[in-house]
Structure formats: structure tokens, C-alpha cells
Amino acid sequence: MTADHGDEPHVRQLLGAYVLDALGEAESGSVARHLQRCAACAAAYVEVADAVSLLALLNVEDLLE
């Protein structure tokens, strides 16, 4: 994996939807391929995935505090 992604745009704005499996099949595939080639977006993906995992640990009472 390298930071060089050629002329392909970064996918950071799609990472939240990608982690939540909210993208269509074609768009999800495009993001997955980009993440294999772009170290910067792959690192951002890990951060987003971690945040989503942590949010899943919260319950309603935690949110009301």
C-alpha cells in the first residue's frame, strides 16, 4: 500500500457510510479498492471504524448524561 493514489480522488468523505455498510455495491467496491492502495485513507478508515465500534458500546443512559 502506498500513499500514491494517482488521479483517483480520496474516499474519506465516504468512510462513515462504508463502515456502516450504507453504500451501494459499486461504491463500496470502489472504496475498498482505494483503501488497498492509499495509506492515508486506510489510516482514516481505521479511525472511523474504531469510533463506530466505541459508539456501539454506548447505551441510552450514557447518551442522556
Task: Explain what this protein looks like in three dimensions.
With 65 residues, this protein is mainly alpha-helical. It has four helices and no strands. The chain has one domain. The longest helix has 18 residues. Helices cover 63% and strands 0% of the residues. The protein is elongated, with a radius of gyration of 14 Å. The N terminus is likely disordered.
Brief overview, please?
By secondary structure, the chain is mostly helical. It has helices spanning 15-19, 25-37, 39-56, 60-64. The chain has one domain (12-57).
What is the tally of beta strands?
0
| Count of domains | 1
**Structural class by helix and strand composition:** mainly alpha
Kindly report the oligomeric state of this protein. Answer: single chain
Proportion of residues in extended strands: under 5%
Order of helices and strands: HHHH
Shape: elongated
**Largest sheet entry:** none
Q: How far apart, in Å, are the first and last alpha carbons?
A: 42 Å
Spans of 5+ residues with little confidence (pLDDT < 50)? Answer: 1-5
Number of H- or I-type helical stretches? 4
Helix content: 55-70%
**Mean pLDDT rating:** 85
**Rg from alpha-carbon coordinates:** 14 Å
Layout of secondary structure:
Blueprint: H1 15-19, H2 25-37, H3 39-56, H4 60-64
Helix pairs in contact: 2-3
Q: Descriptors for this entry?
A:
65 residues, mainly alpha, 4 helices, elongated, Zf-HC2 domain-containing protein, Znf_put, Anti_sigma_zinc_sf
